[in-house]
């Protein structure tokens, strides 16, 4: 095994390396701007709002257990077979469902060094041994991942774009990964933030999974579609896996409102894409402005930026987290992964919210008057 870190099975109740959020009152009485959860700053589109309102009159009845209408809409929007789509209570439920199908205590789950923290939690719940492959410049390294595979490896989780770093592997590298992986190892390509890299990128990843019996692509409506509060995700998986995936999934885990909203959002893709375009433009603008101040952001394919104060360490990162809250009422995220203590993360808001963040960052870098 090359360039990897292995941690043995642990109870899912055992604390992970987490750093808490600010819980004190805002000292100036300012309204809070929460940029800490990678959410979109927009309200529902008119079509989504109307669909939720209509569905709310029927909340005494369960939603369709198999999400038939939503799966049909997803298949049409993405050029996929509806029989190879399963929906869940956010993509996080489906990550658990996948792990329960393929991982047993003592098996190995492989992720990149700064992979999504839910991957670690999923492995812990299964009593699996977590293996972290080294990264290159805070980006997943395909050679390191392939080199970390052992006879005990059962599952590989790879978020691309990644959370919390925001970095992206090109599809050519994803192809190398799936082609180099043993056929008995399941590869999960998590596209939670894929739309912010590009809808074409997402289509290419789905095409990569077509015809392969060990590749699953997971998606969510929580990010680009702005439906985080309704918890709806989906996965594109081989047809042969579907019976066992459904057996491990909650029977009615996608509620009626979530199904209605997600289906309406797919019928409102022009609005979704316009909002994604604005976030991407703001991502470029904010990163450039911060760089001019001496705050570096990693290259991002997501709706958030991971940043650090140039030449400074964890103390400066912590001070900036607190400063944003105290100075402007802005909530950002302390990084929760060992090795990223010098960094902090925030999602892109509206242009006005981003201007507020930039001014607060200038105040911090300039220091007391």
Task: Explain what you see.
By secondary structure, the chain is an alpha/beta fold. The chain has two domains: 9-42 and 270-366, Alpha-Beta Complex (Aspartate Aminotransferase, domain 1); 46-267, Aspartate Aminotransferase, domain 2 (3-Layer(aba) Sandwich), CATH 3.40.640.10. The protein has twelve helices and 16 strands. The chain has helices spanning 46-56, 68-78, 90-102, 117-125, 142-147, 171-180, 199-209, 242-248, 256-266, 269-293, 314-328, 351-366; strands at 4-7, 33-34, 85-88, 108-112, 129-133, 135-136, 139-140, 153-159, 186-190, 215-220, 233-236, 295-297, 304-309, 330-331, 333-334, 344-347. The strands form four sheets. The protein has an eight-stranded mixed sheet, with helices on both faces. A hairpin with a 2-residue loop joins strand 6 and strand 7. Helix 3 (90-102) crosses helix 8 (242-248). The longest helix is centred in the last third of the chain and has 25 residues, at 269-293. The chain is globular and about 65 Å long. Residues 12-18 have low confidence and may be disordered.
Short summary of the structure?
This protein is α/β, with parallel strands linked by helices and 369 residues long. The chain has helices at residues 46-56, 68-78, 90-102, 117-125, 142-147, 171-180, 199-209, 242-248, 256-266, 269-293, 314-328, 351-366; strands at 4-7, 33-34, 85-88, 108-112, 129-133, 135-136, 139-140, 153-159, 186-190, 215-220, 233-236, 295-297, 304-309, 330-331, 333-334, 344-347.
Write the layout of secondary structure elements.
Blueprint: E1 4-7, E2 33-34, H1 46-56, H2 68-78, E3 85-88, H3 90-102, E4 108-112, H4 117-125, E5 129-133, E6 135-136, E7 139-140, H5 142-147, E8 153-159, H6 171-180, E9 186-190, H7 199-209, E10 215-220, E11 233-236, H8 242-248, H9 256-266, H10 269-293, E12 295-297, E13 304-309, H11 314-328, E14 330-331, E15 333-334, E16 344-347, H12 351-366
Parallel strand pairs: 2-14, 4-5, 4-8, 8-9, 9-10
Antiparallel strand pairs: 1-5, 3-11, 6-7, 10-11, 12-13, 13-16, 15-16
Helix pairs in contact: 1-9, 2-9, 3-4, 3-8, 6-7, 10-12, 11-12
Cofactor: pyridoxal 5'-phosphate
Domain Aminotransferase class I/classII large: 32-359
InterPro entries: Aminotrans_II_pyridoxalP_BS (IPR001917), Aminotransferase_I/II_large (IPR004839), HisP_aminotrans (IPR005861), HistidinolP_aminotransfase (IPR050106), PyrdxlP-dep_Trfase (IPR015424), PyrdxlP-dep_Trfase_major (IPR015421), PyrdxlP-dep_Trfase_small (IPR015422)
């Amino acid at each position: 095994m090359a360039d990897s870190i292995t941690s043995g099975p642990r109870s899912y109740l055992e604390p992970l390396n987490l750093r808490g959020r600010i819980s004190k009152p805002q000292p100036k009485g300012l309204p809070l701007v929460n940029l800490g959860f990678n959410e979109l700053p927009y309200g529902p589109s008119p079509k989504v709002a109307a669909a939720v309102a209509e569905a709310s009159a029927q909340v005494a009845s369960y939603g369709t257990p198999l999400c038939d209408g939503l799966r049909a809409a997803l298949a049409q929007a993405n050029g996929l077979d509806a029989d190879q789509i399963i929906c869940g209570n956010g993509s996080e439920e489906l990550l658990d469902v996948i792990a329960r199908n393929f991982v047993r205590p003592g098996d190995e789950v492989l992720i990149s060094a700064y992979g999504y923290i839910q991957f670690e939690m999923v492995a812990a719940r299964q009593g699996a041994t977590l293996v972290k492959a080294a990264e290159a410049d805070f980006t997943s390294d395909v050679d390191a991942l392939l080199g970390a595979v052992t006879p005990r490896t059962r599952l590989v989780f790879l978020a691309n774009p990644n959370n919390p770093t925001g970095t992206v592997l090109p599809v050519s590298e994803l192809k190398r990964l799936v082609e180099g992986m043993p056929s008995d190892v399941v590869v999960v390509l998590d596209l939670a933030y894929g739309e912010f890299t590009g809808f074409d990128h997402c289509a290419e990843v789905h095409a990569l999974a077509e015809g392969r019996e060990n590749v699953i692509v997971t998606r969510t409506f929580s990010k680009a579609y702005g439906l985080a509060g309704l918890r709806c995700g989906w996965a594109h998986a081989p047809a042969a896996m579907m019976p066992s995936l459904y057996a491990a999934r909650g029977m009615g885990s996608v509620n009626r409102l979530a199904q209605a909203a997600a289906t309406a959002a797919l019928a409102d893709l022009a609005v979704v894409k316009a909002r994604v375009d604005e976030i991407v433009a703001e991502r470029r603008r904010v990163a450039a402005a911060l760089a001019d101040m001496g705050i570096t952001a990693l290259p991002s394919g997501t709706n958030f930026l991971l940043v650090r104060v140039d030449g400074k360490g964890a103390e400066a990162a912590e001070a900036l987290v607190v400063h944003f809250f105290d100075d402007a009422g802005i909530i950002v995220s302390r990084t929760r992964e060992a090795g990223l203590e010098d960094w902090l993360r925030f999602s892109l808001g509206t242009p006005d919210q981003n201007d507020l963040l930039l001014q607060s960052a200038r105040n911090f870098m300039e220091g007391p008057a």
